[in-house]
Design a protein that fits this description.
Blueprint (H helix, E strand, L loop, with lengths): L1 E13 L2 E2 L5 E2 L11 E5 L2 E2 L3 H9 L6 E7 L2 E7 L2 E2 L5 E2 L2 E9 L3 E4 L4 E4 L15 E7 L1 E7 L8 E6 L6 E9 L2 E6 L1 H5 L17 E10 L2 E12 L10 E5 L2 H7 L10 E4 L2 E10 L2 E9 H5 L4
Length: 300
């Protein structure tokens, strides 16, 4: 289970509202857009959406200056809030300051650093990679599984208990190759197996392999897959390995690859070679993986 906080407020949409005079207003139209990050309001750092909303409501109708990040570039914009039908000042945007989800931890290295998911955390509305300021990794109990079918991706549903006893580590980086951070003692105590050597992408071959994931009785297990293709120079870093689930038990439980299995390590010849990243929506028995060396090199 993971919980991340954005670096600033992510703008997920720009809208309009009806003012006290019955006229429709959209103060942020043509000024802000989806994917922008609001970093400051009138020189004050923006930390959470509730405080930001209150600051706008207290502006008294005066123009506010927002420092934003757009496509990695910092700029300032001016917006004049208007009153809505309830008499509160608004600028007409939807924002998000955090995200939660369930995925699979891929590895913990000798220094206690972890990598998970095999792809970055993206915003559900804008599909953009989220700028993460901080986050927390939690141990999560699997409570149900929705099997995948052609055209309908399945899903592992987990219950995240947000208390200190369930924390496994701190998330400090969200990149294209996954989420990364530092494990705590509780997570390290769960490492009961011997470390696996890393298999480089040149060593991978078509044929039998295994994925290691938790879908039954909250215990990780190995399930058989077949690697059908290896694309060493794929433009999409998350799709270098193509695989098909062949394990009859996993097919019965999940129908193949489902949401929540992202990050499941792929093992071949006793080496960790990658992690599951995506499922083919029209055929849940098939999916993609990222090369493990891409994850290990992502923070360098």
């Amino acid at each position: 289970g993971l919980y991340v906080e954005t670096d600033g407020l992510l703008v997920i949409g720009v809208g309009e509202f009806v003012g006290m005079d019955g006229i429709t207003y959209s103060p942020s139209k043509y000024i802000l857009k989806s994917g922008d990050y609001i970093l400051e309001c009138n020189g004050k750092e923006v930390s959470d959406k509730n405080t930001f909303i209150k600051d706008i409501e207290k502006c008294g109708g005066k123009e506010v200056i927002l420092k934003i990040s757009r496509n990695g570039e910092i700029q300032e914009v001016a917006i004049k809030p208007m009153t809505n039908s309830a008499g509160k000042y608004k600028i007409g945007i939807w924002v998000r300051d955090n995200a939660q989800g369930v995925g699979t931890l891929t590895y913990i290295d000798a220094n206690g650093r972890f990598g998970a998911l095999g792809h970055g955390v993206t915003d559900v509305d804008t599909s953009t990679l989220m700028d993460v300021e901080a986050g927390t990794l939690y141990r999560t109990e699997i409570i149900s599984i929705q099997r995948g079918e052609a055209g309908t991706p399945g899903e592992v549903t987990g219950m995240i208990v947000y208390n200190e006893s369930c924390i496994l580590g701190a998330i400090d980086y969200n990149g294209e190759e996954g989420i990364f951070g530092k494990c705590n003692g509780q997570a390290l105590s769960m490492c009961t197996q011997k470390p696996l050597p890393v298999g480089l992408k040149q060593e991978i071959k078509k044929g039998q392999a295994y994925i290691y994931c938790t879908v039954k009785e909250n215990e990780p297990r190995y399930y058989a897959v077949e690697i059908t293709n290896i694309q060493l120079d794929h433009d999409n870093v998350n799709r270098g390995i193509e695989l098909t689930v062949t394990d009859s038990e996993l097919l019965t439980l999940t129908g193949g690859i489902v949401q929540g299995m992202s990050g499941s390590p792929i093992i071949q010849d006793g080496k960790i070679i990658g992690a599951v990243t995506h499922v083919l929506v029209n055929d849940p028995t098939r999916g993609y993986g990222i090369f493990i060396e891409s994850m290990l090199n992502s923070e360098n």
